[in-house]
Structure formats: C-alpha cells, structure tokens
Specification:
heterodimer, A: 229 residues, alpha/beta, Rossmann fold, five-stranded parallel β-sheet, 8 helices, B: Rossmann fold, six-stranded mixed β-sheet, four-stranded antiparallel β-sheet, 11 helices
C-alpha cells in the first residue's frame, strides 16, 4: 500500500499548496487523480514519489513510514517508486544518449551488469527501436523521448509507478502506446499506479478508480480529504 | 488502387477552386528541407497544398515531429538558416489596396518584419509563458505591441492596451502582473491579446492548448473560434484532436511531412470518419474510442521510404504502396477507407 495521511505540502510553510490531504493506493491498484491546473496535484505526486518533503502528515510505503525524501531516502524505498513527468525535455539530461538515459538508474545503484539484458527486454516493450538508442534528446521527438523516460522509470522494476501528466504533451497514438506499456508492465509485475492528470476521459479509461480533486485551493479553502469515485 | 468517384472529385475540385478564389492564405507545393552535416537532409514538409478562407478554421493535426510547426515557421519566415523552401504561400488581402498579395516564401526579411508579422499574420504561440518577456508586465507587453503595430499616440496607448486585453478576455486587474504570476490560462490569453493587436486577417495558432487542462483547452479553443467567427482566417496547429473537433471547419492531417488528408470536420469526426488509415488510427487511439495505438513508430524524416510513408505501419498496405500515392479527392492513399475497392 502507498498511503498518504493528512499530508500538508507546498513551497512556503506559511502558504502550503494543499493541507490535510489523504490518499491510499492499494497493492496492484491503479488510481487516477484528477484536478484542474494549479490545484496541487503535481505536488502531491512529488510527495508520493518521495521527491518532495511534506510540511506535515505521514507517508507510508508498503508498511514502512517514509522518514526521508529525495536523495536522503533509503535506497530500498527510493527505488520502489518509478516516476514519469509531464515534460520529457525537462526531465532528460541533454548530454546522455537514450541508451544511457534509460540505463542511468541501474548505474546509479551499482547494477551495471544487468544493463544489456534489462535494456533488451525493456526497449521493445516501450516501442523504442535500436537506431534511436544512440541519439541524444534533441535528436528525437517528444513522443520518442517520453518513451525513453518511461523505460527509465521501469528499469529498476519499481513496485509503484507515479505518472504526473505523462501524456499531456503527446498525440493520441503515442498516448495509447505509453498507457499500454504501463499496463503490460503492471500486469506482469503487479505494480501499483498513481496517475495524475486533468484528462477525465483518459484516466477513467486507464485506471481502476479515479479521485476528484475539486474546489478552489490555495485561495483559503483547504482540501480536506479526497473522495473516491 | 481504387478509382475515386469522378463526380466526387469534380465536386471537390470545384469547392477547392472556389476556396482558392477567396482564400486569405493559399499554399501550393510548400516544401521545406533542412540541410544537415554530412550531406543529409531532413524532409520536414513535402508538397503541402491548402487554402484558408476568411472566417474559416483549418486544424492541422499530426503527431509530434511530423512537420506541423515547421510549416508554421515557414509561413512566418522564421526558419533557421539551413532551411530550403520551395513552393508558394500567397497571403491575400482582397479589400486592401495598400497591402498587395505577398508570397510568404519569396518575401524578404524586411517585408516580413515590417508588413507581415503581427500586421497580416498574428501568431498565438506555443507555451505562452515562455513567449512573454519575464521581466516585464503584461501591460508593458501590450503597450509596446500597440506602439509598434498601430502607431497609437502615447497618451492613448494605455486605453488601447486595455481594450486589447479585453478583446482576449484578459482581466484588467491582472495587467500589472509579470508572466510568472499568471496561471497557464491567463498567460495564454495574454499571448492571444498580443496576437490580436495588429488586427491581422490571418491567425496562426501553434499548439495553443498544450499543457492546459481540459477546461482551459475548451476556453482557449472557443476564444479562437470567436476570432474566426469575426472573420479571421485561423490555422490551428495541434495534436489535440478534441480541441480540433471543437473549433475546426476542416481538418488537415499531416504524416511524415505530408498532408495525407483534408476533410470537413463534420465528416472527419462524424460517422463516416477519416479515409486515410493513419487519420483513422489517430482517432481510434483516443481513450473515448478504441484506445489502441498505431503500431510502430513514424519514419525518420532523413530517411523517408520511396512510396507511401505510412505503408510500414498500415494494415492495408499492398504492392501499390511502394509508389507514392497521389493526393486525390482529399486523401493521399492507394486504398482509402470507406471507398469501394475497384
């Protein structure tokens, strides 16, 4: 289970982006979090992915309470969550070739030996061809780069996947292809998914359940808890 | 190869001829190549033909990297130095003796800068927050544009800027904010307000809805539609089929640098659907439809196949597809869907 209990988070302690929000994703479950832009859903995704330390509240990952975020998080927890962001250009190191971009998490965790086998298995699954692997990000399209970013998120076989507007920049066909890749990974490994987005039609089609994050926020009206839907 | 219905072809050609007669923008054989190191060249746009009339919205759709934005840059003369263009893109202004018809591809930089950009073509940019100058307020942007484009005297500029903001539904209370203090939707409206100041007959909107949430997409799309209803010609470049459906009169589908289908929006999104297999595949990939991707990846623009560029991904491809398909009756395909096989 990925549990967020009464989490308050933001970038200024005096004016948090959201207060007192709770959300639970069951093992193997896929949850879509829907909300308008600026409501704080990306911040929530960052908290769930252990990338942003909340001001208050608890995050529990598979029964273990999270006590440290970002690089301070223990490796076992950090690598249990894979993240895909909205903008592939901003989340890819422009100096790395796509093959190195995808393999980077294996290198960073001292598992270089697994690189060839894992890449051979993963790249067809996300629809990347061999000729793209030698290229750098500026030489591929947004869709191709996002495929590589998804492969990077899956390369350590995370038990949890957080997709923050993964497909907002992409055309319909690439969107469907990336969602299919995520779903086949989940079918194979039983990983849980938190998909954040504003596209209701997409998330309803994609996820087991969707959660609405409604109401004006930040304007003094704190979101209490999220209702399931 | 199917024989297209002769009557249909004639009817469509008549419509096209009529469009060409009162078109604001008339593009013929627009081709863009980028010369790369090592003698390679990138075929970004190949033989694009279309007309756009006043009061009409044409949506140009296709996946990222298919050449849509290059086409827009070509029309504005904003391509990098290693680009080569061919063809014509005539920008007409029928009621305006002062501004003769100009070929956008042949015009020099001076003509484009002084008479075309902002004055005869308004650009609604992608990612408006990045388009605005971060250290200046929205009011400063608007006043500068008013001064540059309309020559309004200094004491009237403030009012003119406020009127421009109102036209794009930008709230007057936010005029003194800097770009980073605006939400995505407000930044979009600020950019639209800037594009409208020159009262250009042609509006070019390059992915104006990317990254906005659905409600803002709808609002931005509706605002663009209102501009078309006021008599502007609108070229909307987007990968968002829902936005295209909301505003477009006609849809042009681009694949690997070529326009492969142009269809009335009602038919394209309606029951009979698109006729090109790629266009059909794009629609079927929508989550409200089949949600199935088109297999494979688009071809490299440096290494396009001899024949139909879509053939390697097409379920209906056969021997005929080794030759490039001609653009007939609104579709470039050897075996368009919905036509009886001859």
């Amino acid at each position: 289970m990925l549990e967020l209990h009464s989490v308050t988070a933001g970038y200024d302690r005096r004016a948090p982006v959201f207060r007192d929000v709770s959300l639970t994703v069951g093992a193997g479950e896929s949850v879509g979090l829907l909300g308008p832009s600026g409501c704080g859903k990306s911040t929530l995704a960052r908290v769930a992915a252990l990338l942003h330390r909340p001001d208050a509240g608890r995050v529990v990952l598979d029964g273990t309470e999270v006590r440290a975020w970002r690089h301070r998080a223990p490796r076992a927890q950090r690598t249990a969550v894979g993240v895909v962001f909205q903008q592939p250009r901003l989340s890819a190191d422009p100096r790395l070739r796509l093959a190195d971009l995808v393999a980077e998490p294996l290198r960073a965790t001292g598992r270089r030996g697994e690189i060839p086998a894992r890449l051979a298995e993963l790249l067809p699954a996300v629809g990347l061809t061999d000729d793209l692997l030698g290229r750098r990000p500026h030489e591929v399209s947004d869709g191709q780069l996002q495929r590589a970013c998804l492969a990077r998120a899956l390369v350590l076989r995370p038990r949890w996947l957080v997709c923050d507007e993964m497909t907002a920049m992409l055309d319909a066909s690439t969107t469907a292809a990336l969602v299919a890749a995520v779903e086949s990974y989940r079918a194979e490994t039983g990983a849980g998914l938190l998909a954040v987005g504003h596209d209701r039609v997409l998330l309803k089609r994609w996820c087991d359940r969707t959660v609405e994050w409604a109401g004006p926020n930040g304007a003094g009206e704190p979101v209490k808890a999220l209702a399931g839907g | 190869m199917t024989a297209p219905d002769a009557h249909l072809v004639r009817a469509l050609e008549a419509v096209t001829a009529e469009r060409a007669a009162d078109a604001v923008l008339s593009v013929r054989g627009l081709t863009v190549r980028f010369r790369m190191r090592g003698g390679r060249s990138v075929a970004a746009v190949t033989d694009a033909d279309f007309d756009l009339a006043a009061g009409e919205c044409l949506a140009l759709v296709g996946e990222s990297g298919c050449g849509k934005s290059v086409l827009a840059s070509a029309l504005l003369g904003l391509l990098p130095g290693n680009a080569e263009t061919r063809g014509t893109a005539l920008l007409a202004a029928p009621d305006d003796a002062e501004h003769p018809t100009v070929d956008l591809l042949a015009a020099d930089e001076r003509t484009l800068a002084r008479t075309v950009r902002g004055r005869r073509i308004g650009l609604v940019p992608q990612s408006p927050a990045a388009h605005l100058t971060p250290v200046r307020t929205v009011r400063a942007h608007l006043e500068e544009t008013v001064r540059a484009l309309t020559g309004t005297p200094r004491r009237e500029r403030r009012a003119a800027a406020e009127a421009a903001a109102e036209r794009a539904a930008f709230p007057a209370g936010h005029l003194d904010r800097h770009p980073h203090e605006l939400s995505g939707g407000l930044a979009q409206r600020a950019a639209t307000a800037l594009a409208l100041i020159g009262d250009a007959p042609l509006l070019l909107a390059d992915e104006p809805t990317t990254g906005l949430d659905r409600e803002l997409v709808d609002r931005t799309a509706d605002e663009l539609r209102r501009q078309a209803d006021r008599g502007k010609a609108l070229l909307l470049i987007t990968h968002d089929l829902a936005a295209a459906r909301r505003v477009a009169d006609r849809v042009a589908v681009m694949y690997a640098g070529r326009i492969v289908e142009i269809a009335p929006a009602a038919r394209f999104f309606g029951e009979s659907g698109p006729r090109h297999p790629y266009a059909r595949g794009l629609l079927d990939a929508l989550p409200e439809r089949e949600f199935t991707p088109i297999p494979g990846l688009p071809p490299e623009l440096t290494d396009l196949p001899e024949g139909c560029a879509f053939a390697p991904r097409c379920a209906g491809a056969d021997a005929a597809c080794a030759a490039p398909p001609e653009f007939l009756a609104g579709v470039a395909c050897h075996h368009p869907l919905g036509a009886s096989r001859a």
